[in-house]
Amino acid sequence: DGGITQSPKYLFRKEGQNVTLSCEQNLNHDAMYWYRQDPGQGLRLIYYSQIVNDFQKGDIAEGYSVSREKKESFPLTVTSAQKNPTAFYLCASSIDRTWGEAFFGQGTRLTVV
Amino acid sequence: GENVEQHPSTLSVQEGDSAVIKCTYSDSASNYFPWYKQELGKRPQLIIDIRSNVGEKKDQRIAVTLNKTAKHFSLHITETQPEDSAVYFCAAPKGVPGYSTLTFGKGTMLLVSP
Known about the structure:
The structure holds 2 protein chains of 2 kinds.
Chain A: E1 4-7, E2 10-13, E3 19-25, E4 31-38, E5 42-51, E6 54-57, E7 64-66, E8 76-78, E9 87-94, E10 103-104, E11 108-112
Parallel strand pairs in A: 2-11
Antiparallel strand pairs in A: 1-3, 3-8, 4-5, 4-9, 5-6, 7-8, 9-10, 9-11
Chain B: E1 4-7, E2 10-14, E3 19-25, E4 32-38, E5 45-51, E6 56-59, E7 62-67, E8 72-77, E9 86-94, E10 101-104, E11 108-113
Parallel strand pairs in B: 2-11
Antiparallel strand pairs in B: 1-3, 3-8, 4-5, 4-9, 6-7, 7-8, 9-10, 9-11
């Protein structure tokens, strides 16, 4: 069953701790993206990767880090430097660098207490 | 960079009515405009998209129109049904083809009352 999978669905962490969100796809897509969704704010781009071993900052990259060691995996680390980490995080992938459909994971809701 | 404005933020209609959501964009080089639907607690999914070589595209009850001169595009849903209730996002590309991302509008919550 092809698709893009995020885990876990819900995540709770204490303030000051780093946390890593998982994103895996078996669609053989080159491009992968991380978005943050807050109420009334739409989807804001955190980081994206167009190819393995390469990634670029999006509009709100501060306090986040990523890696792209494998084509199918694009984990996001929310560091203690992120001032407001509580949010809904969406991972997405698209077939390549051209403009076309983005497929989203089911999201991870991170709550920092 | 690309700036996408979406209106209205909420839209309430009666079942069977039409709904229209509008978006404007800033980058005149953009030529791909998708619309995504996100039901409560679920992932966004593409429902329709349009490229700038056409002015209108239809798929059953949904349609998208594009006015490149005015830099705006709209989603039209006819004969709305309760299952159309969701948040709808428009998007436009940021960057050149080959190395670009999508910039999303802030979303429109559509509520269809039976």
